[in-house]
Write a structure and sequence with these properties.
The chain has ten helices and 49 strands. By secondary structure, it is mainly beta. It has a domain of 609 residues: Maltoporin, Chain A (Beta Barrel), CATH 2.40.170.
Amino acid sequence: MRFSVKAWNSLAIRGASSSAVAVVLLHTAAANAQTALQSDNSIQGQTAGTAAQTPPQNTANDAGPQNPEDIVVTGSRIDRAGFDQPTPTTVIGTTELREGARPNLQQALNDLPQFRATTTPAVSIGNTSTGTAPVDLRGLGTVRTLTLLNGRRFVGDNNLNFVPLGLIRQVDVVTGGASAAYGSGAVAGVVNIILNDKLKGLSLGVQDSISSRGDGRRYGFDGSFGTSFAEGKGHLIAGAEYVNDEGIGPDGRASRPNLGAGVVRVNPTSTTDLRTQLTPDVNYGNTAVGGLITSGVLAGQIFNPDGTLRPFRGGTQVGAAAFNASQIGGADATSLYDNINVASPVERLSSYARLSYDVGRATIWVDGTYGRSKSDSGFFPDLTLTTTTISATNPFLSQAIRNQLAAAGQTSFKLGRFYPDAYTIGLHSLRQDYEGAIGIDGSFGRFKYSAHYSHGEVTTDQQLTNSRLATQYANAINAVAGPNGTPICAINAVTVTDAACAPINPFGTGNVSPAAIAYTTGTQIAHTLNKLDAGSAQIQGDLFSLPAGPVTAVIGGEIRYEKQTAQPGTVPIAGTFALPVFTSTLAGGFNVKEGFGEIAVPLINVEGKVKLDLNGAARYSDYSTSGGIWSWKGGGTLRLFNDLLLRATRSRDIRSASITELFSTQRITIGPLVDAQAAKYAGTPGYNANPTLVNTFNGGNPNLVPEIGSTLTVGGSYSPSFFPGFSVSVDYYNISIAGAITTLTASQLTQACNAGSTAACARIVRDNTGTVVTAFANSQNLANFETNGLDLEASYITPLSRFKASLPGTIRFRALATYIARFIVDTGVTRINSAGDVGDATANANPHWRSTGSLSYESKAVGLDARVRYVGGGLVNHLSAVTTSAAGVTSGLINNNVASRTYLDLGIQFHVHDQFTLFGNVDNVFNRSPPLITTGSAFYDEVGTYFTAGARVKF
């Protein structure tokens, strides 16, 4: 279950009156490669056993000794030496994981241009997803990116907070569909985290970080250990990592430019000029901390903490009249964004251990994981409080103020009161991950086999403390004078209706008593449990040989059980929350049984000249909820003169519905509907185009079927033999997803039906007059996604001794870039291409260009890193372009263009005696500010210059 401040701000209008803000509750589950070189210099598209360049592995930051004969394949089940897997892959090694000193794997991956930072501490402010760390390939949604640990599924709903960085050898990012290899969820691609299971020795590290503004402190420590025993037959690795990110509170906004901007009218009084502009420091125009009087003889006065009045130091009102919804500036003015975090705090612990033992030609292994992430912070002030009518005889008013009101003949006045001092909701979130697995890897004859079983659970306990109770607040705000003039609740004036009622003094900050807060607030509670049981077995071998080489095949099966329960807590005080978040129960699950196969067929192999391989894979998945479905992949590679590798692949991929989408509590609401098909039924007697009593079903839908993706990738890599150490790759991708799961309102369903969506039409029930009587507005397979673009990569690595024997160390250069040509979301109601949009409040925004380039020098004594991160310019929202209608009405955003941003990061490491390393890092060296943004951007650095220092010792 997730609630986001962004849901309140679909138009990004900072400072709008809370009565105009629409509440949207987002209910989601809290559950939810190409062969790599055995070194950190692996480049996209290279294949183990075929790459010509492997650098010396003598850096202090190596993940550990690696067996050059080990072959790791991601996106394919075939791990044959010399096999060129056609699906493009980006390999992330220890250098990339080190650069930027990121606090977890998720944020290290988010620096890559193929990822969208959809959920991070700086993006998920005022959001119950705090504490999760999912990754989002291609911006297609975190649910469409499959994450694996050593090639197998793990519990945690794509939460990379539970993976210790110190144990990671490399990460393979498959940038094409891989459902045939790994099943559901691999529509956008796969992130395969490969641990260093041959780790030896003990490594301990500590680091501390802080921003140039003195906030955002983050500190942590980690340790990893590996050893062999029983004459090398057994091996143990273990690691743990603790990080405490204190976040950046609301006070951090004052020193950071461009945060919390709002959209205001350029000419608010004009009926023909409807243009808008993004503007910094947009605040509430009719509400203030302490209380602003907006009517009567005292209008324009604000309450001091002692209950006296003074003139309100406001800004420029947006509109001709006083006390409009918004104003710009103002010393006493405030807004929502002045009172929410810049970055949410997260404290996390992750640990992992693995024990393996060789028995003959088999290795038996068992591993275990425990992870915990916790967040405790202010969420945001209660936004549902609106302007209140206050009686002129309110006993909390001073006698002088009451006299002024009486002299003016005023019996009441309007008070705009914002309550960060009394009604700021607090979020307390604890997520814990437990998982264990057992498996075997072995061989007999010319065959290899592997099997495993795992069981994992994630528990999520969340509390929204200090949540306002609507009925109690209404009782408490209405105060009258009791015996001896003591303020009491009006409901107790004649007969004691509620003895617990404590009246509210709303005049001035800090004057709402603890008793009144206790009476008018409660704690919303939710407990969620996710379980995953998974098992798989496969066998691989060479079937027969062709002149070009052996035909290799793999077959196997998997079974998976997923279950989720969610239970909200009870309200401790009679009444309902003014802002209900944890409202529904959930209990459901499904199982899937799968069989898969893959084959690699070498057609041509002329040594040193030409090598042509074909690859095909298929998987049949039988879901207990939706039945059977196929996914498949076909592709091929052509290697010319050892230097040039061309590849192409086409795949059909699937994403099955989540338990939340399937089984969240169904609710029925009865209300009005505007029928977009009125023209079609207008001639039918008795037809009503605007029925008021339509039964609308919301919530989960157990009849959902898997989304179906179609992916095409075409590209290649070039590693010229005349330029050792250099490689370049280019890959084109085209992904389309049909039947994507979405939710439309009842009225939108009629719009989609009118636009030709037969699926939407099937969700509408009409009577014999054509009038809509029932609409199924729960989760449906109605949407479609389309995206295409280019991935580019270039790398160069060389020891300096190549140029002069006496020069120590190695130089490494790597650049990655992604161009998104289009990103279309078609809901049946709208079809929007958001490629090139970069506004943080723009749905599905994706800049056309993103890139990362790094230059590193490494020797036994010192290491230096320089990295450049680039975000291309674009539009806040292409739908907001300034246009003039035929009627002469001009609308649109006048500052819609956003310039590109480039960030420089620097790092240094000092190595002492090959065992001790001191390191430092500076992110965003030039303190590059973000463009004007509203809440939290997935693309721009909001924190500013950030320093990290630490040390590591190895034994």
